[in-house]
């Protein structure tokens, strides 16, 4: 066939590109219900290529290729439809429906201020599809359009499409791959044309919520003028939205709801959703604080309560968070995961995470993308979350959208996980509530994230002391004249005859009276009775509280034998097999215990006692340095077996996950988990210790200060590989100095264990001791296989972590002229060199816990050296790093009066370590020589 003729024929054929949308519609109808298409089409679709044996879901690329092949092959018999213009218009009608589904949101009425300048979308115009109003009375098949009819007049269809996709709700969902999810959303939107149909009682409840949202802000403005409160004015619909979500979730079986949000609207959420007593908030504004620790500003504080729904009470928790806006989101997800695990819920239905974002922060903060990325992974799955963007249309203080993102919507980042996005006009509270309920239903149906873009405005500046007219004059001239959401909705209900104007005023007066009395203003508030984690055993305890972690050797051997068992059919890799053979010898006393097995034994003892262990890190199953091997991979079929899951029938869960390549979101998730579950040992392991740099905000704002600011206990353990072996600047230091700089008020523990017995005792101490504070471990690399870094079963059996380890060689104390103090790997370099030189007048003391500093144990270790005047602190790190600057006041306090204390180590450096092995070795030898050479 001539090329030009072929082109014309393809364009006119029902299988040509111009009709592809029509064929796609038929095909998707066939996928949903084969009986919905003609027999000829059924036979054709059934003959299409199948992928991996799946009959219905087929890659569209394969389907399109098949269509094209049919169209090009003039010898092949094709299915025809009745010719003529009517058939071409039928195709165009289906294309029109598709266009509205894809792009209707671009013409939706979303901006309450009507400032948005929407671009013209040709796809939504009749003329673009060769249709006109003259066709309005013609009836067409509407394919899968869920309007309740298989055919409609074009005029009726056009109105339905406008109402569904271009009203006060703009739906973005066609980027989703799953046909089921798209069909579900289409059904929910198109069947009611995106219009809520609420009863009089439901409408009055929405109005009451708006009265509360507006009333609190006006009350605070009048009572405390000029005070920062980051008010919700303009985004008032957030209150009915949240309450609708909680009710819906409770009706569907949720028992927990954890909310994370930044500043704007937080006080309103506390009072009008969670039911915090207003009098307590007013006391905080008046400066009457119930101070515990350092405290924090009002708009960072969290709260907990129970909320009554038709499905039972839901426990609400508003997470505490700092001004690092989006970092609270993975914390919320971790808290939800802990609650789900505690309840034994695997599908997420019993706990709902809701995170509330600012428009600029949602698009601008990388942790949002990290949290989306991990949302469907094994370690971090919570059954989906609901993300609400309170879109003020002004970034944070003065930034306009063109300066805050590179995409049309602030929510476009959510498309990375194919989350549906529902934009909704904040001045239409019924649409807001409709979308809220839709979001909960979608999340619970598909166990995936869903995003709501609440398009609104802020009536004041970034805070109440800010002057927005200076930078957004036109917007704020309009805002000044714009009625509040409560006023607009009250007018609407009055016109509908739902409520009289006098009754609206009664609601306003009644709410203000309740605030004056200091009464709880949330009808659904209930005292907390829902089962929660019990923190009472850990409250008021300090780090030196007594505990007993000893285990008989026989018990250790029994646990060890169970921890090295695996099925005979499970073929291990050669080196891993050798590790397990050696562990069997260790249990028989034929080899000493190494680091990896001591760790495994500690975990076995904890799960054997019924406690949960959760370990997360980028190589945690195997261990970055090939030492742990908690998860065994069969060389025959790649199946996995975890011996620690088979310690006993009534053991606690053992969960170890190789995480995504993220530090910030993952560490924040684990913090959230640990703050919600005191009975679990929660560990985050850095692939290298300096990788914690990527999560520094979590360490600074949560781990180190959460107890002081918010009274939040947390037993999270960080394993951070640290040690100078010549691996360069980025693989040497876990930045010990940064953690020590954050230490105060006994807020966390910083330890540098040097033997397997120490790591065994350290892990058990973190669980057995009735104390829940973060544990920061400078964990080893080369010590994992160092011939001197071994222990006996008897040493493990004591269960005692030694904060200080004194001299171990048989030196005569009276001969000692110098005492070298150190921590970590450098001890073995010093010990090896001293033995080589046969030095007998220099003692070496290890400080295994640098904070809280063990002054009493230090005094005991140095009691025989009170005559010594020469004390040295030796470290591998540069002088401006490591423990020297942050801890030398503790070292000075430990040495005898009149003694001198000097430094032996690398010179100060802007980089953690040198990049050349030869230079590293020279430096290492020099610092060892300096420590062991008497002047």
Structural description of this entry:
The protein has about 950 residues and is α/β, with parallel strands linked by helices. The protein has five domains: about 1-80, no CATH class; about 90-170, Orthogonal Bundle (Helix Hairpins), CATH 1.10.287.1150; about 200-525, 3-Layer(aba) Sandwich (Rossmann fold); about 555-795, Rossmann fold; about 805-930, Rossmann fold (3-Layer(aba) Sandwich), CATH 3.40.50. The chain has 32 helices and 25 strands. Strands 3-9-10-8-7-4-6-5-11 form a nine-stranded mixed β-sheet. A seven-stranded mixed β-sheet has the order 15-12-16-17-19-18-23, sandwiched between helices. A five-stranded mixed β-sheet has the order 20-22-21-24-25, sandwiched between helices. Strand 24, helix 31 (about 885-895) and strand 25 (about 900-905) form a beta-alpha-beta unit. Helix 8 (about 200-225) packs across helix 10 (about 265-270) and helix 9 (about 240-250) packs parallel to helix 16 (about 430-445). The radius of gyration is 33 Å and the shape is elongated. About 50% of the residues are buried. Its cofactor is thiamine diphosphate. This is oxoglutarate dehydrogenase (succinyl-transferring).
């Amino acid at each position: 066939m001539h090329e030009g003729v072929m082109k014309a024929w393809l364009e006119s054929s029902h299988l040509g590109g111009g009709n592809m949308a029509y064929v796609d519609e038929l095909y998707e109808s066939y996928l949903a219900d084969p009986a919905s298409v003609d027999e000829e089409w059924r036979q054709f679709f059934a003959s299409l290529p199948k992928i991996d044996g799946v009959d219905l879901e087929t890659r569209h690329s394969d389907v399109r290729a098949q269509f094209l092949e049919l169209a090009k092959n003039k010898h092949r018999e094709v299915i025809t439809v009745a010719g003529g213009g009517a058939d071409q218009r039928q195709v165009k009608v289906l294309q029109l429906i598709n266009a509205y589904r894809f792009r209707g949101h671009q013409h939706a009425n979303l901006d309450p201020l009507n400032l948005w300048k929407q671009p013209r979308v040709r796809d939504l115009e009749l003329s673009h599809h060769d249709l006109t109003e003259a066709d309005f009375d013609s009836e067409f098949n509407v394919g899968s359009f869920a309007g309740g009819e298989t055919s409609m007049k074009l005029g009726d269809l056009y109105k339905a499409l406008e109402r569904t996709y271009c009203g006060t709700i703009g739906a973005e969902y066609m980027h989703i791959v799953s046909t089921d999810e798209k069909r579900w959303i289409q059904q929910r939107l198109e069947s009611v044309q995106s219009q809520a149909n609420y009863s009089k009682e439901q409408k009055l409840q929405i109005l009451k919520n708006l009265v509360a949202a507006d009333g609190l802000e006006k009350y605070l403005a009048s009572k405390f003028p000029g005070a920062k409160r980051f008010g919700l004015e303009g985004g008032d619909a957030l209150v009915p939205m949240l309450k609708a979500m909680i009710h819906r979730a409770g009706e569907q079986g949720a028992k927990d709801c954890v909310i994370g949000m930044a500043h704007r609207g937080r006080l309103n959420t506390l009072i009008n959703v969670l039911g915090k007593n207003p009098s307590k908030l007013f006391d905080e504004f008046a400066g009457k604080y119930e101070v515990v620790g350092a405290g924090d500003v009002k708009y960072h504080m969290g709260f907990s309560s129970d909320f009554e729904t038709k499905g039972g009470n839901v426990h609400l928790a508003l997470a505490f968070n700092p001004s690092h806006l989006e970092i609270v989101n993975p914390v919320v997800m971790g808290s939800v995961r802990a609650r789900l695990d505690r309840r034994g819920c695997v599908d997420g239905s019993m706990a709902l995470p809701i995170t509330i974002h600012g428009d600029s922060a949602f698009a601008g903060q990388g942790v949002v993308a990290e949290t989306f990325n991990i949302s469907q992974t094994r370690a971090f799955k919570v059954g989906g979350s609901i993300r609400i963007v309170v879109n003020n249309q002004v970034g944070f203080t003065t930034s306009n959208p063109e300066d805050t993102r590179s995409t049309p919507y602030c929510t476009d980042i959510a498309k990375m996980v194919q989350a549906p996005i529902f934009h909704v006009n904040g001045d239409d509270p019924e649409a807001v509530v409709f979308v809220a309920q839709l979001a909960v239903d979608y999340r619970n149906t598909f166990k995936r994230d869903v995003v709501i873009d609440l398009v609104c405005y802020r009536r004041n500046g970034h805070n109440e002391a800010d002057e927005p007219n200076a930078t957004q004059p036109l917007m704020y001239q309009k805002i000044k004249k714009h009625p509040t959401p409560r006023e607009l909705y009250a007018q609407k209900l009055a016109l509908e005859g739902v409520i009289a104007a006098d009754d609206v005023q009664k609601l306003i007066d009644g709410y203000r009276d309740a605030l004056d009395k200091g009464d709880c203003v949330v009808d659904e508030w209930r005292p907390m009775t829902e089962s929660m984690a019990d923190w009472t055993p850990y409250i008021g305890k300090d780090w030196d509280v007594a505990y007993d972690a000893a285990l008989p050797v026989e018990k250790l051997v029994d646990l060890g034998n169970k921890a090295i068992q695996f099925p005979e059919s499970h073929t291990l890799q050669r080196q891993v097999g050798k590790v397990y053979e050696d562990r069997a010898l260790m249990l028989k006393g034929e080899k000493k215990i190494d680091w990896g097995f001591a760790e495994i034994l500690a975990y076995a003892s904890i799960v054997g006692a019924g406690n949960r262990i959760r370990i997360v890190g980028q190589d945690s199953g195997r261990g970055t340095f090939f030492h742990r091997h908690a998860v065994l991979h069969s060389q025959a079929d790649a199946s996995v077996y975890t011996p620690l899951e088979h310690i006993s029938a009534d053991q606690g869960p053992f969960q170890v996950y190789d995480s995504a390549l993220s530090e910030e979101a993952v560490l924040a998730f684990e913090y959230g988990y640990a703050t919600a579950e005191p009975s679990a040992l929660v560990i985050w392991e850095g692939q290298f210790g300096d990788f914690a740099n990527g999560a520094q905000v979590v360490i600074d704002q949560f781990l180190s200060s959460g107890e002081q600011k918010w009274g939040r206990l947390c037993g999270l353990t960080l394993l951070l590989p640290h040690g100078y072996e010549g691996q360069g600047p980025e693989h040497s230091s876990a930045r010990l100095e940064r953690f020590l700089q954050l230490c105060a008020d006994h807020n966390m523990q910083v330890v540098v264990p040097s033997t397997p017995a120490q790591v065994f005792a350290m892990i058990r101490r973190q669980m057995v001791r009735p104390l829940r504070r973060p544990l920061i471990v400078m964990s080893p690399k080369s010590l994992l296989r160092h011939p001197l870094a071994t222990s006996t079963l008897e040493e493990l059996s004591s269960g005692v972590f030694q904060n200080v380890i004194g001299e171990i060689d048989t030196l005569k104390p009276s001969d000692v002229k110098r005492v070298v103090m150190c921590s970590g790997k450098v001890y073995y370099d010093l010990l090896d060199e001293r033995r080589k030189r046969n030095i007998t007048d220099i003692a070496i003391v290890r400080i295994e816990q640098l904070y809280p500093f063990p002054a009493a144990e230090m005094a005991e270790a140095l009691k025989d050296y009170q005559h010594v005047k020469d004390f040295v602190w030796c470290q591998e790190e540069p002088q401006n790093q490591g423990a020297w600057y942050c801890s030398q006041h503790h070292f000075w306090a430990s040495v005898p009066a009149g003694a001198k204390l000097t430094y032996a180590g690398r010179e100060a450096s802007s980089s953690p370590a040198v990049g050349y092995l030869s230079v590293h070795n020279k430096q290492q030898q020099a610092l060892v020589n300096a420590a062991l050479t008497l002047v």
